[in-house]
Amino acid sequence: MEVVRGLDLERYMGRWYEIASFQSFFQPKNGKDTRATYTLNQDGTVHVVNETYTDGKKVSIEGTAYKANPNSDEAKLKVKFYLPPFLPIIPVTGDYWVLYIDEDYQYVLVGGGPSKKYLWILCRQTYLDDETYNFLVEKAKEFGYDVSKLHKTPQSDPPPEGDNTPKDTKGIWWIKSLFGK
């Protein structure tokens, strides 16, 4: 599968809002205002913070992304999280392949590697116009993804900010996700 070549990691850093994705067991089923924030570390790895809001509480998980092959210019990254998020002891690594990004680094199509089990449409804003969204869906089809599995993520405008929202510190969402809830 062709991926973006020469991804400028510095330009890629910052906040990305999830516009749509394939539902996965490691995200709350009723999550909204889902977003990822990427920060470049001095060693060239990326600090990842994924957040979503479910049942009135903010849940998050932190991890690290790094190039799958440091000698390649392909935008094939690995992302490592430790599970469960409330007692991080088990490392879990997954693929994060940048399949398409616009020249201004405002929206992106990300796949979860060759399995085509995961797919995300991300944007710098909480919304994406229909024309651009449909363009990215068509791109995903070209890569062989079953786009009927795409689920649009509810986003608030403006998005929630600050630490006023209660946090799920017990990992209830994660335990429920194991049972498909």
From TrEMBL:
All residue ranges annotated as the Lipocalin/cytosolic fatty-acid binding domain in the record: 7-155
Positions of region (Disordered): 150-169
Signal peptide segment: none
Highest taxon of the lineage: Eukaryota
InterPro entries (UniProt xref): Calycin, Lipocalin_ApoD, Lipocalin_bac, Lipocalin_Blc-like_dom, Lipocalin_CS, Lipocln_cytosolic_FA-bd_dom
Gene3D superfamilies in UniProt: 2.40.128.20
CDD domains in alphabetical order: lipocalin_Blc-like
PANTHER family membership: APOLIPOPROTEIN D
Family indicated by similarity: Belongs to the calycin superfamily. Lipocalin family.
Entry protein name: Lipocalin/cytosolic fatty-acid binding domain-containing protein
